[in-house]
Amino acid sequence: MGTEPSSAAAGGPTAGKRDDHKRSLTLLVVDDYPPGLMLLKQQFSFLGHRVIAATDGKEAFDQWLADDFDAVLTDSRMPLMDGCELAQAIRQHEQSNGRPRCLIIGITANAVPEERARCLAAGMDECFFKPMDLIELDRYLGQRDVAVPTHEIIETTQSEALGARLWALAGQNSDIQRRLVDSLRSSNQADCERLQNLLAARDAESLPDFAHRIRGAAGLIGAEALVTCCLTLEQAYANGASQDALLCQAEVLLQRMRELTADLGRLHQA
Prior knowledge:
Elements: E1 26-30, H1 34-46, E2 50-54, H2 57-66, E3 71-75, H3 83-97, E4 103-108, H4 113-121, E5 126-129, H5 134-140, H6 158-169, H7 174-200, H8 207-220, H9 224-238, H10 243-269
Parallel strand pairs: 1-2, 1-3, 3-4, 4-5
């Protein structure tokens, strides 16, 4: 807006209790997708950490230079400066200026070994696939005994299933869920407009990157039909599909995105 979806959890006071004996970390979180950034900030704030946010690698690098961070968590693919370029810039500065090594964790929707290898080669310490599990975040940052809120998802309509997923992601906090729905709805509407413009311009070359970005957000909220649609388009491009075939698949993607907008609209009105 992955791999096997996992229950990322962010929450309010009922979501769990942080071990007060653990040190609070100062984290730099980087993501160009607003709902994704919002969730990451909420998750790490819940764990008791100080969180600074950036929307691209260049902004993140400037913030990193100006502050002392215990860890950087960055999306691997972003405009201006992507996560790998950010990691390389940080490592080069550390070596040139004798600055202590900062933990860098990559976050990607491209759940293939090659992407993880690319991140590690750039100087990252680890790379996690979206959607991320709170327990994984907890483990890697050295936290223990964090309770993960659960919410049983039963067989129901698509919009109700989405609502249940967002309820779990929001840590069963209605205010956070409402803000998340609004953020996703706004971003998805803007993405629909962008895809319409790409279709009008018959810009098939821009479709794979667009689909990759949408796939990351779709994986985050468990929209598997949308994830599959994005993967189909990306794979079609990689296999040398014609412009007409790619544009046809993009029309299908646009329809799936409109369905998501409608579902989010129903949740917004609920």
